[in-house]
Amino acid sequence: MEMLARWIENENTESEYRIIDTLTHPDASTALRFWARRPHDGLMIGRDVPSRAIARLLSHVIVYAPNEDGSDAVVHLAGSGLRMRFGRDVTGLKLSQIFVPEDFRVRLEALHDVITRGEPRLAEIIHHTSDIELLRVELLTMPVTAPNGIDRWVLAFAFYF
Fold first, then answer.
1. What is the pTM of this model?
2. Per residue in 121-147, is it b (16+ CB within 10 Å) or e — as a string?
3. Which residues have CB under 8 Å from 134's CB, separation 6+?
4. Residues 6 or more apart from 116 whose CB is under 8 A from it?
């Protein structure tokens, strides 16, 4: 699996991150329903996540905990399906340790946006060479409350094509 991470991220590939209006992956509707049916006070890690409603999607989940000054975020939890993407378990790593600087900035900005707006963000990332799509990922990123009931974290679902 480590080979996939090396295959899609090297000097011959590029990554395009863009906000989209609709998710097309078949499992995305389950995650969107989960958001739509959230409690009135929002989703909370430990109380609402994990949940039976999203049990079959947990391998696609990543939970980010921003640091105090917002300059980075730690991966609090990474589902086993993300090992294919990163080539290893990224739980406990900082966002800045996982992504190259340009991709790090885009993703950190997305986390801040989700937390600030309090609404999900739908995005697509395409990894490609000059003319060949190597991997497409749809992301559903949503705000959640940390187990302490105070801090704002981010829950993301990554759907691969």
1. 0.86
2. bbbbbebbeeeeebbbbbbbbbbbbbe
3. 7, 8, 13, 127, 128
4. none
Pair of tokens at residue 150: 């105070």
Mean pLDDT of 27-40: 92
pLDDT band at 1 (very low <50, low <70, confident <90, very high): very low
For the chain, which residues make up each domain, given as ranges?
2-160
Supply the CATH classification number for the domain 2-160. 3.30.450.20
42/49 Cα distance (integer angstroms): 11
Q: Which residue has the tokens 């406990």?
A: 92
The beta strand positions in 52-110, using DSSP E, are 61-66, 73-78
